[in-house]
Amino acid sequence: SSLNIIEQRSALIEICLQSLLREGSPFNVSPPLFWFLCPTDAGSGKVQKDHGSSQTSVLGKTIGLVVQVHSKKSLKQLLYAQHDSCAGCYKRLDVAKGLVQGFVQTLGWGKPRFCEYSGQLFCASCHLNETAVLPARVLQQWDFTPRRVSQLAKAYLDSIYDQPMLCVGAVNPHLYSRVPILAHVTELRRSLSKLFSCIRCPSRAQMHQILGPQRYLLECNDFFALRDLEDLSKGAFAVLPGLMNIIYEKLKAHITRQCSICRDAGEWCGAGFLCEDPFTPIFPFQDDIVTRCQFCHLVFHNPCFQKCGCCPCKSGGKDKGCV
């Protein structure tokens, strides 16, 4: 039928135009036609694969978090994937084909510029050779060397610099063994989280105000901001570990000595009259000085548990039932 003929011819025309587009110069395609020939997935900014091609292009003015280091590609491969177009404004990227033009591009004028963050090529208007620390290099290699990025990437990295978006445990859990100070701060966060769970008075809101945008440090997880990791890279001169130690000691003093409301979060020793310190409650963050029964979850001071020999719930059995 005529409708089938029209569909077949439309498909052939589209394939023909796409082949011309891949050939590059001297054919120049305006952005509207480019996006018609290379339709994008909704909301992803990724160009769909052509029939018979394994290349994909990621042009578009959208950007997200990149935590993997890009594999190295030649200039020819990058230009082919982007159809010889700038990843920002879709302007055609010219590669030197003459002696004069080649000399000019060796000076950095008019030469396509590579963005280390997105792994794309940009024109000189969309890439001003500004630098930024890359989250992928930090998480994978603990490398804080600033690298050249496009204007789009620079704006994005600046916007997330103090946001807890980098999950170390999910991306590279081996980093904890390579960077002791990072493992130390992670343990401090776990301790702070247990401490903060005991705060039952208005001091909870006050602590949030004191920490401001860094209140996420009171949560027990592996998310850090790039600012935190950059601070930890200073080693002995890092500010974050000292700050967290100060907060820990203040919260501990508040719970154990200063506030009667928060003091009620503690439990009394299960040794009863055998307890050596009957007026000192046991708090959830004191795991290092207490023993907890694995059956009834009763808690004991370590010396008290040694005096009792076992938990009352198992006093008649051979198994002491405590860990």
Number of helices: 14
Using only C-alpha atoms, the radius of gyration works out to: 30 Å
User: Termini distance?
Assistant: 81 Å
Number of strands: 8
Please give the share of residues in helix: 40-55%
Mean of the pLDDT scores? 78
Strand neighbour order, sheet with most strands: 1-2
Unreliable spans: 25-29, 39-60, 98-105, 317-323
Structural class computed from helices and strand pairing: mainly alpha
Largest sheet data: 2 strands, antiparallel
Pattern of helices and strands: HHHHEEEHEHEHHHHEHHHEEH
Sum up the overall morphology in one term: elongated
β content, as a range?
Answer: 5-15%
Descriptive key words:
two-stranded antiparallel ribbon, 8 strands, 323 residues, mainly alpha, disordered C terminus, elongated, 14 helices
